[in-house]
Each structure stands twice: as C-alpha cells, then as structure tokens.
Queue: 3 jobs
Job 1
Amino acid sequence: MPEKPKFNKTALKGQRDSLAKYQKFLPILLLKKMQLQLVIRRLEPVLETKRRELEATVASIEPWAGLLSDETIDIEDYLQIEEVRTKRDNIAGVEIPEFDQVLYEDIPYSLFATPGWLDKALQVLRQLVSLREELRVLLEKEALLKEELRITTQRVNLFEKKLIPELKENIRKIKIFLGDDETAAVGRAKLAKAKLVQKEVTGE
C-alpha cells in the first residue's frame, strides 16, 4: 500500500518502483479473473444438467416409491455409504474438489428372504445418491471459484482504481516539487553569484 510520500529523490524512486511492481502484477490478476469467469460460465450448464438428471431420477422413483414404505424391510439397511470419493484439482490457483464416485458398503442379503423389487430399488437409489453427491461437490466447487473470483475482482479494483492512480499522482507531485526546488536553487545560486560580482565591483 503506498504511503504518503516524502518529497525527495529517494521517495520518487520508491514510488516508481512500487508503481512498476503493481503494473507488472495487474495483468496477472486480470488473467486470473478471466480464467475464473470462464470456468464458472462453463460450470453453469454442467450444474443445470446434473440438476435435471437428479430430478428425472427422482421422478422415475415416484411410481414405485410406495414400496419403500414396506414395513417388512428397511431399505436404509442395504444402502449404506462407505465413502464419497473425490479428487483434488487446481484452477487458477484455487484447490477444488472433483467428484469421483460413491462407494457403498457391501451388505449381503438373501434373494429369497427379501422382496423381488429390492435389487432394482437399490440400483436406482444408488444412482440417485451418486447424482446428489456429484451435484453437492459441483456446488462446492462453484462456491470456491466464486469466492476466489470475488477476492480477485476486489484486488483488481484496488490496483486499478486506488493504488496505481495514487502512485502516479504521488510521482507527479514529487516531480513538480523537485522541479520547483531545482528552479529555486538555480535562482538562489544566480542571486548569490550576482552579489559576489557586485562586491568585487564595488570593493565592499
């Protein structure tokens, strides 16, 4: 952050160095901002597709959803999540999760002691849970990217609208001050020289 400058050549160099540093870093921030915006835009249709898949799967269950209330069997006993497996990726410096798969506990059951619809129900419900978890991870990914975009945009605005303009203005003021000071110094030197000449002439 630029401080209120002193009006000397050292301060001028310091302000110029800071300006060069911010001007060098700004394009990197702008590139990061563009990358994040692009990734978020590409993520939106993926999210919408997953939402529709989830809705379609839920709709496909409705015709036989009543079977799940069968008191002779608790479907949750056979649908136990062991792990939601994700991978880690890095986009524009942001570490984000990528959905891999849902692993279920292997719970054996007798085909003769359970209803005939259990196999099909477990297959569809596992698909439903996997879609739900994939959507959850996608939404987490989107939230992380949007937060990073917010921070990056703030930094870009800080550089463009505050830091760089302030440094340029400081440099302008210091240069004017040093120019005026130099002019005054030249004027004083001329005046002193004129007085010396006058003393030599008058012999005083």
Job 2
Amino acid sequence: MSIKVTGIDWDTDGEEVDLPTEMVIDTAAEGIEDPDQELADWLSDKYGFCVKSVAFEPVSEPGLR
C-alpha cells in the first residue's frame, strides 16, 4: 500500500533545513505496518528531525513518489 503524506510539521528548533512537507511512501517497502503508530517515527529516523504533526491518506496509483 502507498500513502500520500502531507502537512509534515518538523520540529527543527529553529534550524534552517530543507525537509519535505509531503511525499508518497510505499509502506510495505519501508516496513511500515501501521502508519498511525509508525509514520512519525519512520520520518524522524529517515530525516533526523522529530515530527510535530503529519497527515496521510491511501494512494491508489502505484509508483508515485
């Protein structure tokens, strides 16, 4: 399953960084079984910054990134 992640609000402590605010993730390929519980941690692990808030929805078109 792919999900479209939007509205990513990063906790950067005021540091100027270039982080994505939206993306499409293939949850199976990334090992995310429960996006409600695992998505913020996955984003934090991948980009090195904590996430304040995030929204997501299923995507029906495979291969979008």
Job 3
Amino acid sequence: MRLWMKTLLLAFALAALAPAFAQQGKVHVQWLGQAAFKLTSVAGKVIVIDPWLTTNPKTPEAYQKLEALGKVDLILVSHGHFDHVADVAALARLTGAPVWGPAGLTQSMQVLGLLPPAQAGRMNRSGSVKPIGPDIRVSLVHAEHSSELVFKNPATGKDELHVGGEPGGFIIEFENGFKIWHMGDTGVFGDMKLIAEMYRPDLVLMPIGGGQFVMNPADAAFVARDLVKAKAVVPMHYGTNATLPGTPAELIKALGANSGVKVLEMQPGDRLEF
C-alpha cells in the first residue's frame, strides 16, 4: 500500500477515535469567589462566569489580575449587578472572548461602549447557543432576582442606572455530556423542579448566602433535596461580606443525613474535576 494511502487511512482512524478520547477527558471547575467560576472543558475550552475578581476580597490574590486566567474562550454573565459584571468588559477586551448573557444586559453594555457589537451575545431565557463550537451548549434559564446595570459616566463622574435585562442562570453541557447548572443569584421558585427535569444537571453551583439577596442555607437545602434532587452541589455566593452570612455547614445540616445530595465545599481558588 502506498504511503499516502496509509496516511489517509490513519487520519480517518484517528478522526473516528476522537469522540472516544474526548469521553475519557474531564471537566475542570475552579471557584474564584462569590459567583465567579472558571470552567475548562474536555477539549480545553475555557468558560468564565460572572467575573468579579480584581476587587473581590475573597478572590485569591493570584487571580485578582485578569491575565492570570490565561486563555478565555467564553464569558457568561448572569445579571447586571456589580458583583457579577464588574470585570466583564475588561476581561472581554483582554481576551477577545465573546460575552453572552441576558439580552437587555449585553445590549446595554454595547450601547454604553463597554462591549463591541461582535462580542455582545444576546439571549433570552429558554434560549440555547453554541458560541464556541458544536460540542458545548449553553442555555439560559430562569432566576428569581433583579438585574440593574450601574454605569459611571466618564463625562460626568456620576453613576447612571441602565437596563440590565432579566436575571438568569446557565445550563452548560460539555463535550462528554456532563452538565453544570450555574444558578446565578436566585431565590426559590417552583420551576427549579422543571429546569432540573428538563436538563438533568450533574452539578449545581448554588447560592447559599442568604441575607436580603439570595437563598439562605435552609432554602438551598430544600431546593437541592426536594425540587432539584441534585446529585452534587457546590455552594457559592456566601461569606464575601456581612450581608451573606450563610455557610456550607448550615447547608449540610439543613439537608439532613439521608438527603442523597453531595455537598462539595470549595475555597476560592480550589479546583474540582469531573
């Protein structure tokens, strides 16, 4: 057999094996404080969610410089509050990564000059996109919260309040079928059960801080155990300041001994792989 034919056959064989190799890979999850996560897919695609890093007191010092994130392929933002959107524009400029989030939010950021049109992806809840290739799907789902965008006008030095779209959470399905539900900021709502039944997430990134903004640990335990029937939960959005007093220990206690929900407590900077 001629060399060129052998080379062609080998190329076809490797192409056929590629999905099998991908299945053997892992999804990496790194928590960077508050609701900020860096997710690395099986094929090495990097997704950053709700980047508030440079002034976040809980973000490890090593990651308070955006350059430390390295390559970023996609930025997701769940709503317009400062502790979720603070570093979105700067990270987009640094990396060139597209930003996807609630339509009203990313459009406001575009109109205000924070994002160029080519990087401002717009979607509504129930929408699904594949912005970084055919093997990773991102769906926007409901969250029970608010979403206003505060913009400091450089001409006046004054804060302005702009449309922030409707708040949401994200279902991210990776190349190997593993699904993560980043809930964003949310209170309890009945359709959490429907979302779980529709998407069947393997891992839920769940706010537990309580106070006047998000679910407290008892709320989160009810959601994880009775509505979502979660396999595994990573607590987030707690302990950053005095308004978020909930703790993972309270969540574990509220779940009870026989809930079947695995609580994966992380410290900012920690990584898990699945």
